[in-house]
Amino acid sequence: MTAAVNAGRGIVTPQGVVLDLEAAGVGHRAMARLIDTTIVGFALIAIVQLLQLTNLIDGTLSFIVQVVGTFLVFFWYPIIAETYFRGRTIGKFAVGLRVVTLEAGPIGFREAFIRSLFQLVDMVMTYGALALLCGMFTKRSQRLGDLAAGTFVIRDPRVVSHVPAVPFTPPMGTEQIVAHMDVMKLKPKQERIIRSFLLRVAELSGPARVDLGNRLAAATSEHLGHPQGFGLAPETYLVAVLAAAQLRDGGLAQLAIK
Questions:
Q1: Residues 78, 102: one domain?
Q2: Is 5 exposed, middle or buried (0-12, 13-18, 19+ CB in 10 A)?
Q3: Which of 102, 98, 151 lies closest to 122, judged by CA?
Q4: Rounded CA gap, 7 and 10, in Å?
Q5: Where are the beta strands (DSSP E) in 53-169?
Q6: In this predicted model, what pLDDT tens digit does every residue of 97-117 receive, in sequence order?
Q7: Domain check: are 93 and 204 in the same one?
Q8: Of 111, 133, 159, which residue sits at a domain end?
Q9: How far apart are CA 75 and CA 191, in angstroms?
Q10: In this predicted model, what pLDDT tens digit does every residue of 170-208 receive, in sequence order?
Q11: How confident is the model at residue 14 (pLDDT cuts 50, 70, 90)?
Q12: Domain stops at, among 159, 193, 214
């Protein structure tokens, strides 16, 4: 049952595509940061000089504009860029980096906001020292903002062409259940959580695996309105749910139901 969804190394997308992900190192992240800082710095200088040339602000007001403008630009620039450009800023684009969730999904406004907010601690208050230390001693080179937001930075993923796509195959005996299972209420976040659990079951201890599987299956069954998970074992039910979701989206599960 588990083998149908265990892609081994790498991440499986909702469409069953195996991605080979490489966490970005401290050096690449520093280069992206330097590019972003340079661009933002020149933009601020240009704006202030333009205002001074037009005599719209004096020296004191110019200093205030610089301070306020610096905060607003440095705080909101990464939020806006990473939200609307799927985890990228200009610097990350230039270096080939992208911010993703721990399940390799695209980040949203919440994750981008938290990451930017923690820059005050990571980068400003500690002059980048804390970000450097966290990046050196965390498994995926995560800074404090990444740990708080549940994200990490990757070298932009490439689909591994020689690795076949991996379907969430309906467990034996559940083909008809999967074919008629209603999963319209399944939210992307719930799908990511279930997929993450199934891909990591081998890393869990026996009691933790059973407990988490039971809780996920119960919560999912209640949310989707499935009667007691159709009487299936928790992990079998969760695999069936993802197979049904993949079938609904025209994914690879349809190959297993003929």
A1: yes
A2: buried
A3: 151
A4: 7
A5: 97-101, 151-159
A6: 989 887 667 788 999 999 998
A7: no
A8: 159
A9: 31
A10: 888 888 888 889 888 888 778 878 887 887 777 677 888
A11: very low
A12: 159
